[in-house]
Amino acid sequence: MMSDVFLMPDLWLGMLRGVRVTIAITILSAVLGLIGGIVLALIIQFGGTTARWFARTYVFFFRGVPLLILLYFLYFGVPQISLLRHGPLWTYLFSSPFATCVLAFSLNNAAYLAEVVRGGIRAIKPGEIEAGHALGLSSRKVLQRIVLPLGLRNCLSGIANEVIFTIKASAVASIITVRDLFGEAQRIGTLFSDNLTPLIAAGIFYVILVQIVEWGTRFLRAYMHGVSKPVSNSVLDRGSRTAPISQEPSLTESQAIRTSLHVK
Amino acid sequence: MKQISYKLLLAAISLAAILSGQASAETKVLVGTDASNPPFASVGTDGALQGFDIDLVNAICAAEKLTCEIQNIPWDGIFAALDSGKTQVVAAGLNITPERLKKYAMPGPYLSSPFAYIAPASSTLDGTKEGLSGKTIGTVAASAMEKYLNANMAGTINVSTYDSWDAAVLDLDSGRTDAVFGELIALQVAYIKAKPGVYKIVGEPISDPTYSGQGKGLAIPKDDKTLSAAFDKGLATVIADGTHAQLTKKWFGAEMPAK
Amino acid sequence: MLATLPFLGYIVEGLMVTVGATLVGFAGALLIGATLSTLIVGSNTLPRYVASGYVTVFRALPELLFVFIVYYGLDIAMRALAARIGIAPLEISPFAAVTIALAMQFAAYCAEIFRDARTAIPGGLIEAGEAIGLSGTKVRTRIVLPLMFINATPALGNIFLVILKVSALASVIGLEEVTRRAKVVAGTTKEPFGAFAVAGICFLIVTALATALQHYIERRTTFGRSVA
């Protein structure tokens, strides 16, 4: 019974249609979400009381509400407010299922990535930031040259995890007519009364997509550690343990002579 | 050493006991339905299943003296449950299609309905092909209705496909679509009667032998010949003795033939 | 909203399944994930490849597919096994299937997080442990593992919340959790916004509790190493 559906051209054509949608949603919402997430993480870690409260509330709300429910309210709920049914917001955003989808995913990703990036910043050794101040870097420079690169490097896997979640979560988009890989699998499943075979076919595509993300992460990790070959992370191996520390992105000698300023 | 292996065995047994569900009695027939699709199947405020499919299955089981247990399984998993034997019958307002007949015996038809367009009460659509030209029509993905639209209206209209009738009608509310194309009897009960004055049927109901003519059936794996024979017979009894007509009156507001 | 009110209890009851499956699945994912991350950074080649392969495959599989595989696949395996040893076959309960699937699948994500968290441990701390004469095992259990968990806390909080929502898949094999019940009620009452608002609030309450716990743990483990 499985092989029957496996050989249908309809199945594979559907998969190809779906994978394009999955990739488009993932890339757009990962980029928008990462930008939002970094801003939120910085506010939570370094911002003033009010800003911090807002950022925390945002993160709480959007991490808490399932995507399915968020999508439902954005897509079906917004038009119930007649005020929002006209104007540019409607024309360019809410009238299009795809745009609404990207919006919902970006809002959601921003909340999750804020936590991921915050974790990365938390893991920066205080000495490294103090060193920046001691070298006389301005708060902005410390942020640009130390906090962000180190923070992001510390949480690369977390970001990759989020991207992978997004690849798979785009499945819920089918409730608002956007059919990604998973939505196509479900549609074909209904067509042939077979829930499993199309899912297995989709699984093959998911493995490929995730593999691409993993390659990307590995490349970025090597790049951000500033070495050509990946660093072995064995904690009991003396050489590699010190490698990341000595390879910290460049604070050059010339920067080291400036006067000290304090963040806050 | 002996004591350790004894303890391990004990742990394994208790783990197995936790993992195992209730052993099911051999004689019980498990019937799967998706209870988010009134009037065919839904839940009451107490969480109990209700609907036309539920009553019909219970009537068939009573006629054939079978002990049936109806389970609420979402659409996404309903055929997987049927194929693996976790459920022996699916009763979920299924349309009889050639694809399904290849895999399942489909006792029925127990109901059939023409297709129809619904639109907001203020709509000026007339339901003709010319009138619908360039409009966006919502329907459920991979349904007989979508197939009909693709076969007959391709190039004339834009089709938006949804996971459920509710989603399709919500998008009609939002104004993104101009009409929803579905089964007349379900649309009548679930939307037009449920919210009087909000929606109306536009145009004439459409009967098409290829897409709407085959009606609704239950699904039972082909190799379970005894069970499908029992359900065939039970359904015939229920239709003959007037129970079926009663149930259609209860759930659809009017007596309806099985075909 | 009025038609949804009588169903309030029915929807909220679904939280039992949602929270139960999430807690057990999360605990399992932590355990398997920590083990995997040890293998990935270890010096043995074969376990390292196996562990990396595990991470690739399980991060990629659609959760729905894996739930099906565990539920129906294990069932078939159990029946075959039972026939061989001649005992009555055990049925896998849907709850067990879902928690096993969640634990195995999210272990892959946890392994990646732990790997990062491990890298961020200052080498000096480990050297200090060695310098005061701790054995390799002691260094691992007293220094590396605790610091790894501390560094990983925010990301693990994310994983917990993702599992919370993915546990909705339990419904495909017949377990009725919050999201499924909300959908059923939405279909019945034709008031989807009411039903989904109730479900959303349920999720927000669980998120609030989880976030409070996460922040408590973070505060307790900051040891004056705060960056802010």
Can you describe what's shown?
The complex is a heterotrimer of chains A (264), B (259) and C (228). With 264 residues, chain A is mostly helical. Chain A has helices at residues 2-6, 9-46, 49-64, 67-77, 88-94, 97-122, 126-134, 139-154, 156-169, 181-191, 196-224, 238-246. In chain A, helix 2 packs across helix 6. The relative contact order of chain A is 0.15. By secondary structure, chain B is of the alpha/beta class. Chain B has two domains: 8-111 and 215-252, Periplasmic binding protein-like II (D-Maltodextrin-Binding Protein, domain 2), CATH 3.40.190; 115-206, 3-Layer(aba) Sandwich (D-Maltodextrin-Binding Protein, domain 2). Chain B is built from ten helices and twelve strands. In chain B, helix 6 (144-152) links the parallel strand 8 and strand 9. Chain C has 228 residues and is mostly helical. Helix content of chain C is 79%, strand content 0%. Chain C is built from nine helices and no strands. The radius of gyration of chain C is 21 Å and the shape is flat. The longest helix of chain C is centred in the middle third of the chain and has 31 residues, at 136-166. Chains in contact: A-B, A-C, B-C. Chains A and C meet through helix 3, helix 4, helix 6, helix 9 and helix 11 of A and helix 3, helix 4, helix 5, helix 6 and helix 7 of C.
Number of helices of chain C: 9
Stretches of chain A where pLDDT falls below 50 for ≥5 residues? 227-264
Rounded mean pLDDT score of chain C: 88
According to CATH, what is the topology of chain A?
A: MetI-like fold
Rg from Cα of chain C: 21 Å
Q: What would a concise description of this structure say?
A:
The complex is a heterotrimer of chains A (264), B (259) and C (228). With 259 residues, chain B is α/β, with parallel strands linked by helices. Chain B has 10 helices and 12 strands.
Tags for this model:
heterotrimer, B: 259 residues, alpha/beta, D-Maltodextrin-Binding Protein, domain 2, 2 domains, 5-stranded mixed sheet, 3-stranded parallel sheet, 10 helices, 12 strands, 41% helix, C: 228 residues, mainly alpha, MetI-like fold, flat
